[in-house]
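User: Thanks for the earlier help. One more: ER membrane protein complex subunit 6. Can you show the sequence and predicted structure together?

Assistant: Of course, both are below.
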Amino acid sequence: MAEQADLYKYFEPTVQHNTLALSNIHTLTSWGVGTAAGVLGLTGWNGFIFFLMSWAVISGLIVLVKCEGKPSVYFKSSFMDVAGAPVLNTLLSYVLVWTLMHALVYIYD
């Protein structure tokens, strides 16, 4: 007999809830990382490299902590849902907060 977790593995309301929770985590962490980049005074490619490094760390932590190392249990396309799909939306939020914080800290001294 199949386990109960396998029966609800791709139950659409559960997958949508997981995707919404993941989106919230990525949005909030992009705001925090953008704030850190702005306050640190990162400009140009340094800011984007900082974003990519933090994105890798955050995605890895989500897979290890929230998904317990098994993202395929919580998402349909497993790791791509966690790390690949929301990167552009999160990048836009990051750039917005990054430039705002950089302007507040360094331009208006």
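User: Great, one quick takeaway?

Assistant: Residues 30 and 91 are 7 Å apart (CA to CA).
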